[in-house]
Amino acid sequence: MAREPKLRPAAPIGIKDIARELGISIGTVDRALNGKPDISAATRARVLDLAKQLGYTPNLAARYLQSRKPVRISVHLPHRIALFWDALRDGIREAAAPFAPALDVDYRTYPCLGDGDIPLLEQALADGTDGLIIAPGNPSALAPHLREAARRNIPVVCVVTDAPDSPRLLSVSADPFTVGAVAGELLGRFTAGTGQVGFFTGWLATQDHADKLRGFVSSLSASNPGLSLGPIIEAHDDEREAHRRARDVLRAHPQLKGLYVSTVNSMPVLRAAEQEGRLEGLTVVTTDLFPELVDWIRTGRVAATVYQRPLTQGRVALQALYQFLQRRHRMPDSQRVVPYVVMRSNLDLVLERLSVDHRSGDGDRMVARRPEKRPPAAKPRPTTRRRTNP
Amino acid sequence: MAREPKLRPAAPIGIKDIARELGISIGTVDRALNGKPDISAATRARVLDLAKQLGYTPNLAARYLQSRKPVRISVHLPHRIALFWDALRDGIREAAAPFAPALDVDYRTYPCLGDGDIPLLEQALADGTDGLIIAPGNPSALAPHLREAARRNIPVVCVVTDAPDSPRLLSVSADPFTVGAVAGELLGRFTAGTGQVGFFTGWLATQDHADKLRGFVSSLSASNPGLSLGPIIEAHDDEREAHRRARDVLRAHPQLKGLYVSTVNSMPVLRAAEQEGRLEGLTVVTTDLFPELVDWIRTGRVAATVYQRPLTQGRVALQALYQFLQRRHRMPDSQRVVPYVVMRSNLDLVLERLSVDHRSGDGDRMVARRPEKRPPAAKPRPTTRRRTNP
DNA sequence: GTTCGCTCCGTGAACGTTCACGGCCAGTTT
DNA sequence: AAACTGGCCGTGAACGTTCACGGAGCGAAC
Predict the structure, then answer these.
(1) Rounded Cα gap, residues A119 and A276, in angstroms
(2) Å from the B25 CA to the C3 C1'
(3) Distance (Å, rounded) from C-alpha B382 to C-alpha B378?
(4) Is the CB of A24 under 7 A from strand C?
(5) Which residue among A26, A302, B35, B103 has the highest number of C-beta atoms inside a 10 angstrom radius?
């Protein structure tokens, strides 16, 4: 354990080792390994065999040094809701940075989920790209193009949403069932007594939203037998509709104990509850995080929000894709991100992490907006320190 | 937007561009840039100037290709508590994998936090290492060695614990104040009515534990004015002592409403509560996650646990260190990881992530132990899918 | 004046790949 | 028989660095 001169990994075997062993030239080995023409099937097989047997792994440094074209990854994401998708793009950017300049990511944006992604995908396939990161809004319409990508050996990673019936390398998402289940458990444990809770969603026909509802139901009464699911409201991503329906529902259910707003934009519902003077008696849990919500959490009007961590989703997606492109490493085909439970006590920490990722850009997205007004639960200050245990 | 042949980044300038510009040889430029001897101060300055002016960045691929010695990072972590530190090591391993074989991590283990790390550090400095990841158990005793490392330009990253008064590149930790605050908020919101809650810790003299207490206090009554902090128990990381003290405290405080166990090993306290028949009336929040705890959460006997995410801490630490070693990129000197709130509803998802990281090894750490007995809240099954919104 | 030593600098060979080029040998066409 | 074709393969130059070697210049010691 003391000296041990850290024995060299015995010079990993390279292309020329294979050539020497087989008595052929390195050019031929190159052709065999990279699936190029101008080589007989027999020698190709021999090379491939020996390469596998010897455990050959290409030296990526040398490869990049030679043909200095970087790996190209196309990222196709919607514009709306900007805050969410921008964070996702940031996560990708952050994860891609260490690999520059061997990796070249280009971002393309289309207006709205499921609307305009197909032409972009066609174009990327035409222009030639090495890998794709997309958010399939309409999996069935996308399917033929994904099959085409698979045929051409272009790996595709799905983020946030999934296209489970199409060929794709893997999908990254905050498991919607768990997101709903966490919201249900929080609401169940936060709310004392008996009664009903309301569930706001976008479209129930949407897979993700339906999963959230199932998760929510599965844990709500398990956590608090006194609670049951009351009204289920589809807001259709429309501010005015959401506000109107929220108001109506609150009036129709004066006994409502809690709300789970699972749509991206929870503000209309929150404002309606406030205007109806119902906030006192309601426990509210929302989804995701945006500037307007920060203050509601800080003041406790929203008890908690379940954050789907777009930044992390982006990072995981890019890393998985790049690892596959470089060394054909294949991860489990469903990477599920653990959602954050964000409450008043950890809000600042979450926001800190969010703003940190903006060294390169605009910088003022979530945090700067609300300076240091409410002292966010006393900053830690140094005291005596001795030893520490996790 | 359509054609755009993705203009090449105009061939990043290299060592020979500088040489040509200055009318000297690449060997000299190399000596200047890498601080080697055998070069006059004048030419060195000229080269350094021009390099900065031209924005020269070394081609890492070429560098690695040539002098194929990898970057060496030494990781010094305790053995106990194995589960926690092993997970941390796994996080490092996982993050280091993409950079192999240009990165060579060697792990050294000492028995217990703060006990035996110093000789290891001395040895690593003597053997020559490019960077260090450590968990400073006793910052003041470590200080001179950290200064020595700084003098030799060897960057040091602290994980889990910190040595804020010594020079170090940065520290990664789950902010203990927030960990305590989250526990306090959960306990406050989970517990109805009025009364006292107990706080179990290791040593209050420990910085981290004291911070957790402060965080806990700051959010407990803010979340539930009816609750106040009752007994504070130091268990000194001793199973028997913890069990005995827990029993005594429970008997002395028959009205206790809740418990927060902030020590690594919460089992003695939990078992004492069970034996005393007090579990029904107690809301229990713990810290971190280990196999024995899984069942307690699943059955609801433990309401939630605040998980400090050693895996993520390891990943962040390694990435920060490697980025600094390669390109001198410097991140904020305090990387704070957002702790997970783990409850019954997301327990399986967290465990899934944990077990996934064991492709390479033993594999059966947390998950395999408890197969599929209790159906963990209905797996999602496919239904109709149309479009999706985050 | 030769030898030695020292400082500073240029030279060229690696490192593991990729790729364009050209060569050889079969078989087929003029 | 010469010329052409196409399949298969070897050759060698790059890619941007690092590093060992050696040489030019210059002053000091013999």
Answers:
(1) 45
(2) 30
(3) 12
(4) no
(5) A302
Give the integer Cα–Cα distance in Å for B127 and B121.
10
Distance CA B323, CA B302 (A): 40
What per-residue confidence (pLDDT) applies to A355?
64
A280 Cα distance to chain centroid: 34
Distance CA B157, CA B320 (A): 8
Please state, in angstroms and as integers, the Cα–Cα distance from residue A223 to each residue in A159, A191, A205, A312, following that order.
30, 10, 26, 29
What's residue A379's pLDDT? Answer: 36
Q: Tell me: the pLDDT tens digits for A64-100?
A: 998 878 889 999 999 988 889 999 999 999 999 988 7
pLDDT tens digits for range B56-107: 989 888 999 987 788 899 999 999 888 899 999 999 999 999 887 889 999 9
Q: From the alpha carbon of B27, which nucleotide's C1' atom is closest? A: C10
pLDDT in tens, A274-297: 999 999 889 999 999 989 999 999
Window from A53-57, A184-188, B245-249 with minimum mean pLDDT: A53-57
How many Å does it take to go from CA B219 to C1' D26?
77
Q: Is the CB of B252 under 7 A from strand C?
A: no
B286: enclosing H helix or E strand: strand B283-287
What does the alpha-carbon distance between residue B306 and residue A152 come to, in Å, rounded to a whole number?
Answer: 45
Q: Is the CB of B66 under 7 A from strand C?
A: yes
For residue A49 the two structure tokens come to: 């065999």
Mapped onto helix, strand or coil, the DSSP state of residue A68 is coil
Ranges of chain B with pLDDT below 50? 1-9, 356-390
> Which is it for the CA torsion B245, B248, B252, B256, positive or negative?
positive
Task: Give B 297-356 residues with CB within 8 A of chain A.
Answer: 300, 303, 308, 310, 319, 322-323, 326, 332, 336, 338-341, 343-346, 348-350, 352-353, 356
Percent pLDDT > 90 in chain A is: 68
| B chain contacts of residue A181, beta-carbon cutoff 8 Å | 345-346, 377
Q: What is the DSSP string of B355-386?
A: HHTTSSS---SSSTTS-S-S--S---------
Confidence of residue A386 (pLDDT cuts 50, 70, 90): very low
CA of B25 to C1' of C10 (A): 6
> Averaged over A307-316, what is the pLDDT?
96
Cβ atoms of B264 and B237 within 8 Å: the answer is: yes
How many CB atoms neighbour CB B215 within 10 A? 27
Which 199-238 positions of A have CB less than 7 A from strand C?
A: none
